[in-house]
Structures are given as structure tokens and as C-alpha cells.
Amino acid sequence: MAYIPLEFWSELVRSGSDLSAVGHPALGAYNRIAYHFRLEAFRRAIGASVPHWPNVRIFEGGFGVGFYLQYYAHEGVRSVAGIDLSVAAVAMVQGRFQEFRLVQGDLSEQLAFPEDGFDLVTATDVLYHIVDDRRWHQALAQLCDLVAPGGALLLTDKFPREGIRQAFPHVRRRSLSEYKCVFEERGLKLEYIRPVFVLMDDPITCGAMRWLGYLSLAQWTVVQKVIRMLWHWPWLRDVVAVFLAGLQFPFEWALVRLLDRTPNLEILVARKI
Ligand SMILES: C[S@@+](CC[C@H](N)C(=O)[O-])C[C@H]1O[C@@H](n2cnc3c(N)ncnc32)[C@H](O)[C@@H]1O
Hints:
CATH topology: Rossmann fold
Strand content: 15-25%
CATH superfamily: Vaccinia Virus protein VP39
Shape: globular
Strand order of the largest sheet: 3-2-1-4-5-9-8
Order of helices and strands: HHEHEHEEHEEEHEHHE
Number of strands: 9
Bound molecules: S-adenosylmethionine
Radius of gyration: 18 Å
CATH class: Alpha Beta
């Protein structure tokens, strides 16, 4: 089936107004537990790279159902702007976060935002969904340009060791070198990169520590297949999902803290020089 981004994202978000519309919606309660690891990684990255938190101006590219918007509101961040392609997502979050400036639009097209920029620009789990390479470059370059001098760009991806890998029609992975080229072009420098997941998401076998990628893939295949098999019985699926996540939890907790890199989702911060 062809991937038409505007239709795909508007339809997906229309189908659920919470985390059942992003991440791995089919995994039910497992997806919600995985989001705790996403938030933990996000908080560690902010702690390491964003001084003056929460007194910062934030721009969020692709806010989806507003998981991180909720976090900003909770933390008392007052200045938040953002853009998302999904008409349904924007309509939903505009009602929930009326104090933020949230608009519908495409990151890969010309954006009009203030020239003095933002202290923190984010794109979590967004850029790899822009599968057209020219548009990806345009989106990343614009995000870089939105960062104020001294500010930070934070994003997530799974990075193949080299080149570009199209995993699914709506997922295209680019290596860290591809990102670094754009950072260099736009005056940013990679400052921080850490694992978000080692076990609790779909790993790649062409990234950092390939042997770990294969190990992680073996256990992930079992975990997600078992949960998906129970799709017709949501309460049972959620019980099993929580049980399996509970088994993985201590290993995941330790691994994301011990390892510098992972063959799974990573979070990076680049600084505007
Ligand atoms: C996987 S969701 C991630 C949402 C949110 N950042 C999170 O981590 O929960 C991807 C989001 O990116 C948005 N998106 C995809 N392509 C986009 C583009 N070209 N411009 C703006 N938003 C885009 C989608 O509409 C969707 O809301």
C-alpha cells in the first residue's frame, strides 16, 4: 500500500486520541510502558543538554497526540510552539493545550517561525517517517535553522552504520553520518547520543553492536508476536503485555544506562554553535 503521509497520519491519529495512535498501537499496554522509557531517555537528554529548564522556548516538530506537550505543561514550560502534519492530531491538541502555539503543516515545506529561534527544537520519532530524501533534508535543515545560537536540537532515530535503509513504506532510516552532514551545513555539532531502548522496541541489525541487534531482534520477535496474537482479547493482551514488559524491565533499565550506543532507538542532541 502506498504511503501518503497526510492521509496516513490523519487517519492513524483519528483512530485514537492517546498513545493507542503512536508508537506500537497494536501492542496495547506494552506501548504505554515503552513510553515510560521514551520519557526517561528524553528527560536524561534534557538534563544533560538544556540549561535553564523549564524556562526555555520550545519548538516541537511532529507532536502527535501530545505526549511530550503534556510533559512540558506538567513541567511548567510556558513557551511552546509546534507543527504536525496530521489534521486530526492538531485539532485534538489545540483543544487540550490552548496556551501553546500549535499549527498544522509539513516540516518538509517552507515554515514561517520567529527569526530569533528556540532554545530547544525537538523531533521525536518523526524524521524517519519522511521517506523522500529531499524532503527529509529540507525538514532537518529547517529544524536546525529554528535553533537559537547556543540552543539544542533533540531527535530520535535508529541509525544504520552506513547509508540509508527503508524498513517499511513509512520508515526510512539514515545513518548518523547523514545527519551529521546536515548538522555541519547548518552550524550544529553532535553533543549527546544515548539509547532509548535496547530490548523494548524493534531493533535494527545494521546499526551499532550488530550481535546485540540480532539478540534483541530474537526476543522482540517473540514478545511482539505473543502480544499481537491476543489482539481479539484486549484485556488478556494487556495482562500478557504487562507481564512480558515486567520481565524485560530490569534488563532494559540497566542496559539503557550501561551502554553508550544501541542497535535500537537512540536519542541525540546537537548544539547550535
Ligand atoms: C510516530 S508519531 C510521533 C509523535 C510524537 N513526537 C511522539 O513521540 O509521541 C509521528 C508524528 O510525526 C508527524 N509527521 C510525520 N511527517 C511529518 C511532516 N512531514 N511534517 C510534520 N509532521 C509530520 C505525524 O503526523 C505524527 O504525528
